[in-house]
Fold this sequence. Notes:
This protein is of the alpha+beta class. It has helices at about 5-15, 20-30, 35-50, 50-65, 80-90, 135-140, 145-160, and strands spanning about 95-105, 110-120, 125-130, 165.
Amino acid sequence: MAIMRKPERDAFWASLPEGIRRQIDGYVLQDSLFGAVNVLTAVGRVRFGVGLGAAQLIAGDRYAVLADRIARDPESPIDPDSLYWRAAGLGVDVLAVEAVWDGDTVRDWFVRLLAVSGTADGGTKDHDLALIDHPAARFQHGPGAAPATSADLAGRDLAAALGVPFHFASPDQPDDEAPRWQRPPAHGR
């Protein structure tokens, strides 16, 4: 099915019973995109062909309408002291700090700042330290700050404080498939 245009989404929304609309808006007000999308696909897929893409757009419309009332997750602190405390609180040896792109239909592109630790089998494990989206970047680094710039600054500062490498494979362009940091091979085994 083709993507639903705004007038079609509005008509579908208006056709929903009040109880379903309240339920979807309740999920949106709790910043639960997936809850809202699940309800929309559950009630709209069979009769109206509302698939995942259309449901995300409809939920996005509701986010726009209810924007000033949504109970968003608190923004991740990205100041050096807070990040250092978060990394220290992991209780693992941090091998690297890494910034990776991620995205969704509501937040658009954002950067996840990660602490990377080692595993017993020689692999690595990611530990989320901060989610840096546009509001978090502006809060920490001023009105024009972009998530990549803030992630780069915060990641470099944290890596220096921890004495580990920093890796950000794609600071200039959102790319959620950019190469990840690789643990150096163990020598002498």
